[in-house]
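Structure in, sequence out. Go:
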């Protein structure tokens, strides 16, 4: 995989006649210094963006709008998962490949603790709540996501409304969710199940026991390492424990309509912050800064909202589909980060290896 990624990266670099981009200018600046930063980014010509899979959180639209605004700056991306992104950054510490990294905020804190990130305060940094960013901007939240059941109503007779419902034998071999050892979503849904079963961030046992029971009942078809969005849209997954934005996208944007139901489980859900960072000693630092400023601009934040995720900028108007639900718990990301390794260990021991 690394060899294939390197080949794609070299191929992209070979297409970049940097001198051809020297004349590109902006019609108007979004912020002071944007044109100067754009010119520096054009000299680099490329952004390597880790873990921004195009079907996730409306990243494809972000890519399209960014490259339309900034001709001459290409984006190369991958979809590793949050935990795997930190591992990849650490392995490449001496010769970083990435310019930016996007991940569940707990993984961002982990990367910061490993000194893998550079400080950068982007556009609108002051609008981000203090608990959702590092003081110097080594990581900062750009949007949040809510845990939901995403249900293919053509494959499921009765749409589950609660975590308790998922234990029913009618959902045997029907449920897919992301691996909490390597993905932020997997960790967050484990915490949501834990709250639903009466646990909290100091006691993970109820949620781990619940997921173990779900597996023992035969209701879990598989646990996956990357988002199974395409498989869900193709009709291969009856129930995906995921994020509401993917269900809404499947229903509204990708044509599933009423065949995709999105349920915030009755007992509890979790609103999880997702963050982004400038990678320390990344190969294209100016292009990376240009990219981070863009996703924090009003246009970038609106693009997230259009993808049914909740932008960190509270002044951005939300679509009607993103309704409030009192059972959604805001996540204490600092605390969640401190228990991340323990959660992964407990899940491996009691769910995977039972």
């Amino acid at each position: 995989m690394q060899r294939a990624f390197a080949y794609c990266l070299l191929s992209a670099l070979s297409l970049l006649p940097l001198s051809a981009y020297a004349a590109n200018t902006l019609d108007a600046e979004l912020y002071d210094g944007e044109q100067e930063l754009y010119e520096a980014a054009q000299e680099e010509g490329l952004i390597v963006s880790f873990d921004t899979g195009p079907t996730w959180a409306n990243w494809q639209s972000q890519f399209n709008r960014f490259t339309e605004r900034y001709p001459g700056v290409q984006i190369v991306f991958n979809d590793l998962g949050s935990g795997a992104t930190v591992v990849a950054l650490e392995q490449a510490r001496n010769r970083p490949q990435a310019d930016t990294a996007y991940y569940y905020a707990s993984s961002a804190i982990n990367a910061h603790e490993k000194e893998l990130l550079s400080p950068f305060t982007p556009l609108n940094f002051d609008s981000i709540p203090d608990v959702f960013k590092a003081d110097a901007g080594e990581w900062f939240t750009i949007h949040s996501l809510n845990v939901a059941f995403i249900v293919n109503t053509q494959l499921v007779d009765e749409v589950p409304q609660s975590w308790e419902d998922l234990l029913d034998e009618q959902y045997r071999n029907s449920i897919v969710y992301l691996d909490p050892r390597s993905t932020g979503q997997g960790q967050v849904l484990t915490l949501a199940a834990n709250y639903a079963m009466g646990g909290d961030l100091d006691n993970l046992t109820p949620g781990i026991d619940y997921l173990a029971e779900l597996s023992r009942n035969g209701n879990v078809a598989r646990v996956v390492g990357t988002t199974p969005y395409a498989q869900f849209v193709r009709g291969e997954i009856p129930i995906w424990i995921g994020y509401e934005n993917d269900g809404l996208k499947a229903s509204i944007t990708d044509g599933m309509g009423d065949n995709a139901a999105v349920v915030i489980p009755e007992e509890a859900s979790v609103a999880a912050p997702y963050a982004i960072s400038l990678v320390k000693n990344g190969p294209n630092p100016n292009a990376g800064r240009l990219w981070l400023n863009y996703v924090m601009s009003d246009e970038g934040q609106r693009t997230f909202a259009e993808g049914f995720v909740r932008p960190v900028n509270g002044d951005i108007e939300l679509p009607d589909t993103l309704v409030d639900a009192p059972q959604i718990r805001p996540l204490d990301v600092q605390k969640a980060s401190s228990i991340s390794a323990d959660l992964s260990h407990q899940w491996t021991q009691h769910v995977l290896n039972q």
